[in-house]
Amino acid sequence: MARARHAHRRTAKLSGAFVKDMLRAWRRNWKRFVSLAVISMLGVAVLTGIYAGCRDMFQGADRFFDAQRLYDIQVVSTLGLTDDDVAALKAVDGVLSVQAERSASATVKVDGSDESVTLSEIGVDGMNQPYLQQGRLPKRFGEAAVTRKFVRDSGLSIGDTLTVAPKSSGTSSKSADDTADGTASTNGTESENDAPQFPTKLTITGIVLDPLDLQNPDGYSQGAFRSSATAEYTFFLPSDGITGSTYTAISLELDDTAALDTFSDSYDAAVRTVRDRIEHHVQSKRQKARRQQLIDDAKQHIEDARRQANTQFTDVQRVQINAQFDEQESKIESDIPQVRWYVNTRSSAGTFSSLKSDLSSIESIGRAFPIVFLLVAVFMSLTAMTRMVEEERGLIGTYMGLGFGPATIASRYVLFAILACLIGGGLGDLIGFLGIPAFLLIVLEGMYVVPNVTMLYDWVYGSAGVALFVLGIGAATIAACWGEVRQTPAALMRPKAPKAGSRVLLEYIGPVWRRMKFLNKVTARNLFRFKGRLFMTIGGVAGCTALIVCGLVINDTVDALPSTQYQDIYRYQLMVVTDHDQLDSVRQKLEDNAQVDLAGNAGTLAKVESGELTNAAEESETVQLITVPKADNLSAIADLRNVDGGKPIDLGKLAGSNGGVVVSQSAANALNVHAGDAITLENGDAERESVRVVAVSESVIGSDVYLTADYYSHVFGADTKAGSDDASTDTVTNGVDMNTIFAQYQGSDDNQIDYADQLANDADVLNVVSTADMQRSFSFDLMGAVVALIVALAGALALVVLFTLANTNVSERVREMATLKVLGFYDGEVHKYVNREMLLLTLMGIAVGLPLGRWIGGLLTSALNMPGLYFAVTVRWTSYAIAAAVTLVFALLVQLFTNPVLDRIDPVSSLKSVE
User: Fold this and answer.
1) Within 13 Å, how many C-alpha atoms sit on residue 846's CB side?
2) How confident is the model at residue 65 (pLDDT cuts 50, 70, 90)?
3) Which of 26, 115, 212, 698 has its CA 20 to 30 A from that of 656?
4) pLDDT digits (tens, 9 = 90+) for 421-432
5) Domain membership flag for residue 906
């Protein structure tokens, strides 16, 4: 019993000494500690930083939408909405509040040309409120708030007055510049008293941000891949003075959705549930009731006119007039079309889907890269900690002989690694939740305007990121200790037997081996003798090189997009959009320019309008509908090739008698649409119909959908009624009004751009697209910023990895270097002897990392689903050269740090040590 108590006291005393010795050992290995901490810091920063930047923008947008009370569901109708519709929607289970809204289409003069504008009533119930940026919101009749985009384009400011011209409401079709924005032009079946009437002379009182359009008008352009054929502005007016009992939209706010993340699946599910109730239980009844109301109103108007006529005319005249009234009454049923409701969600609201898609794609990159960082960190920690344990073999044996258990001994190394990870991870969280998001938000704010975005710390994600690296590096450290602590104390206290020499493959190649110098043979044997060091070094260098290549692959892919689209795919140089009635006049102006080629198919006409594509999963994206007179005309617009094999697409043969559409790859990839799928297509008149996809065409920029006039009229109906004056001209095909001219331009790119600018100022021209200008102005700075960030972090990781490997290499070969010095080697020769091996291993790592980076880059780009962009992988040879050069430069830089360490090796003391 007394001996046990004595042993207990002795163990306690030794425990204190054990701790002191452990701390001294940690201090001696500060370089390893810093290496592990920096690797953890970089890994956690990448893991949390890109995620945090995107999440901060997501949460900022969610708060903004909630503050402005953006609708959860919005209902629009082809023939307007009434108070009865409002009451029916308010009674739906799950609907919290309802707001009826009125809007109208008009035109406004901007820089001498007529531009489309939507006059929108500011809702009296507080939903869809514009965000005031400057000035004040309008309160009285004749006042309006405008967007910063309009102020920039028009040159007007607060206090200025302007005049808008209401568009004709006598037909059901819209001109080309109307987009599917949730507004509806008043239809000829509505009386002037029913249709919304807005003031035409307006005074600007404020500049506002439209919650449906968050694109930054003052930032860098996204127009090269997110442009429609037309531009549109929105003016916000108070209810004061706006007349009309018919509404153009009804917005709905749902129960409990404000507490949900608007970008989450739970929010989508909650909205989908209520939308299904509307579509299944309300929509059909109200459509029929609205049409019957219009029929009854029309009949009542005829009866009122009949009674008035009967009191004013003779009997003979009354007979003729009554016959006319009878004929009109008999046509009412056929003249009034069926009412169509469209139940929209936030995903169809302006820039909502593009913001969500952009951020989600960047987030996917942020989830992939940390995996490579983690693997490299595990490799390096295993290498560093294995060497640290081997250096203390004798000490470990001594502690085991004194009765310390394997867990206690291993703890001195595991705690060392974990502490390095915790410190590095903590610094990584600071960089990840402050530094990187601040950088990304600067770039994001150049694309989108989201007020009051703040950087927040996510305790769960931040702690999980640190824990991931702690577990990975901790497991590697335990693996490094495991082989040593299982041995007996006697075996550990004896010097470890040197690794047996073996012949390398190169020795069997006699002519080569015999001509090698002695030191080169030693180098070759050393490389393959220590296979653990070989694989760790090659793996670490390859991982860093692969990260650099991967970033450059994404950069090259983005850089190649404009030339691929605007030179290889598009065959036109100018796309001129006008009103159908002005098409002949604009075409004559183009013919007057000798450099514009309109001969044959070079001057193809088409109908171009903005629309929306919805897949089977009810995911939507904005697209550009291009309707050509015949399938043969497509060859003058684009070189359409099937994504499956690259064969030319013949729409006439593929569609056959059933018809169909061709969807560009950039749009199809974002929505997972394939040939043979049935999709819902919305045209510029907000009409939605199901269509068949007959092919997906190769495309990298833009979301184009191609179809023929015959199929368009079959699906959506004709724009021009049969028998009208222009129904048989070349500007109208199968009742479809053409509004666009695709033309070739023979001059230089500079002349082409100048001519396009001249056309844009023409009052008859709505919009002009110059492919040369689009190619020059293409910019995707968000992806460029992320690539720059990745390359910088990968380069820093490569530097740390090479330093760790070089330091480990020197520390485990001190006796060997001392022996060389005793044999008379000069310092420079020792440097060359050691650095040659490290350089060869670096080259091997580069050779492995280059194709690995190309492969990883291909996986990442294929996973990026962005509307308007398809990332067809392209890699320049210079990118491989840059990645290899950067890694080599870092390797040479590390030599500058390791050479002084070699110089300080004392031959005598080093040879006395036991390794």
Assistant:
1) 20
2) very high
3) 698
4) 999 999 999 999
5) no
In whole angstroms, give the CA distance from residue 613 to residue 626: 13
**Within a 10 A sphere around the Cβ of 239, how many other Cβ atoms?**
12
Q: Does some domain include residue 850?
A: no
pLDDT for the residue numbered 243 = 83
Burial 253-276 (b: 16+ CB within 10 A, else e): bbeebbebebbeeebbebbeebbe
Burial class (CB in 10 A: 0-12, 13-18, 19+), 352: buried
Burial pattern 639-663, b for ≥16 Cβ within 10 A else e, equals ebbbbeeeeebbbeebbeeebbbbb
Q: How high is the pLDDT of residue 559? A: 85
Q: Are strands 704-708 and 620-628 parallel, antiparallel or unpaired?
A: parallel
Q: 177-195 pLDDT, tens per residue?
A: 333 333 333 333 444 457 7
Are residue 567 and residue 478 in the same domain, yes or no? no
Total count of domains within the chain: 2
Q: Same structural domain for residues 605 and 478?
A: no
Q: Is residue 821 part of a domain?
A: no
Please tell me the predicted confidence (pLDDT) of residue 394: 82
Instruction: List residues bridging with 604 in a β-sheet.
Output: 742
Average pLDDT of the residues in 397-426? 87
Phi, psi of 205 (to 5 degrees): -110, -20
Select, from the ranges 105-119, 216-230, 508-522, the one with the highest average predicted confidence (pLDDT). Answer: 105-119
Q: Please check whether residues 479 and 600 belong to one and the same domain.
A: no
Together in a domain, 385 and 461: yes
How many whole angstroms separate alpha carbon 56 and alpha carbon 645? 42
Q: Are residues 75 and 89 in contact, defined by beta-carbon separation less than 8 angstroms?
A: yes
Residues 583, 694: one domain?
A: yes
| DSSP letters for 354-370 | HHHHHHHHHHHHHHHHH
Q: What is the pTM of this model?
A: 0.75
Q: Contact 40/432 with Cβ under 8 angstroms? A: no
Q: What is the CA radius of gyration of the chain?
A: 36
Q: Which distant-in-sequence residues (6+ apart) come within 8 Å of 404 by Cβ? A: 14, 18
Please tell me whether residues 736 and 601 are part of one structural domain.
Answer: yes
Determine the Cα–Cα distance for residues 728 and 719; give it in Å rounded to an integer.
13
Show the tokens assigned to 229: 């054929």
- Of 107, 115, 349, give the one whose Cα is nearest residue 215: 349
The pLDDT score that the predictor gives to residue 220 is: 54
Q: H/E element holding 161?
A: strand 161-166
Model pLDDT for residues 265-313, shown as the tens digit of each residue:
899 889 989 998 998 899 999 999 999 999 888 888 888 888 777 777 6
Q: Helix (H, G, I), strand (E, B), or coil: what is residue 345?
A: strand
- Would you list the DSSP string of 446-468? TTB--TT------HHHHHHHHHH
Identify whether residues 475 and 570 lie together within a single domain. no
Q: Residue range 602-619: average pLDDT? A: 82
Q: Which of 756, 777, 798 corresponds to the end of one domain?
A: 777
Report which of 427, 552, 544, 441 is spatially closest to residue 880, judged by C-alpha positions.
552
The residues, ordered by sequence, that sit 6+ positions from 340 with a Cβ below 8 Å of its Cβ are 77, 78, 287, 687, 688
Q: What is the pLDDT of residues 18-62, one digit of tens each?
A: 888 888 888 888 888 888 898 889 889 888 888 898 899 999 999
Instruction: Determine how β-strand 103-110 pairs with β-strand 161-166.
Output: antiparallel
Structural domain range at position 58: 1-69+354-497
Q: Residue for token digits 């060359």?
A: 832
- Rounded mean pLDDT of 444-452? 85
- In 672-780, alpha helices (H): 709-716, 749-760, 771-777
Q: Which residue matches tokens 């040369």?
A: 772
Cβ–Cβ under 8 Å, residues 720 and 701: no
End-of-domain residue from the set 452, 471, 497: 497
Which pLDDT tens digit goes with each residue over 466-499?
998 899 888 888 888 887 888 888 877 777 766 6
- Return the SS3 of 675: coil
Does residue 602 sit in the same domain as residue 724?
yes
